Amino acid sequence: MSGFLYLAQCGDLPRYKIGCTTDPASRIAALQSIAPYHMTYVRVLDVGSKGRAHAFEGMVLGWLHNTLSRGEWTSDVQTALALFDCVAPAVDVTDDYPAPSLGKSGARVAVTDEQLEFRLALADMEAHGVPVGRVFGMSETMPRRGGYTPSNWQARIDAALAKRAAA
User: Cα torsion at 98, 24, 44, 22 (round to 10°)?
Assistant: First the structure.
């Protein structure tokens, strides 16, 4: 299994995350899910193995220890890039891992009142111990895609809660 050393940037900010991974595509997606801005790779190096990636990560972080904040984040990109140039043997594969798409606007889609009511009803059902997937005969995430309307899901919710109360 290959190991990768990466330098990722958070938006247009001078904030850079240094790390290692065995799956750069999944890692940037995971970083994106917690970052306040769009994450992009500045540099991704295939260093051969997971162990080598950890060793090189330790070297880079060790040299940058005075500039690190919150673990593996730095603002000293010039030194970080120079240290990445010292990693050898390595293959630069940055172009193979573009930033994940954020959709049209990069923002969440607004939830309608109907969707909010439905999600709150699901939460109430779960709070009462009703297995949502069994009530609807599917996974709990499927109703978000649209197939249920207030007229048919409300009846199922009421029936499931009544059955639960009777038991």
Answer: -160
CA dihedral 101, 70, 68, 84 (to 10 degrees): -30
Return the HEC string of 76-138: CHHHHHHHHHHCCCCEECHHHCCCCCCCCCCCCCCCCHHHHHHHHHHHHHHHCCCCHHHHHCC
CA distance 117 to 112: 9
Largest CA distance in the chain: 69
Q: Which domain holds residue 142?
A: 113-166
DSSP 149: -
Encode pLDDT of 7-47 as tens digits: 999 998 999 999 999 999 999 989 988 888 899 999 999 99
Same domain membership, residue 145 and residue 80: no
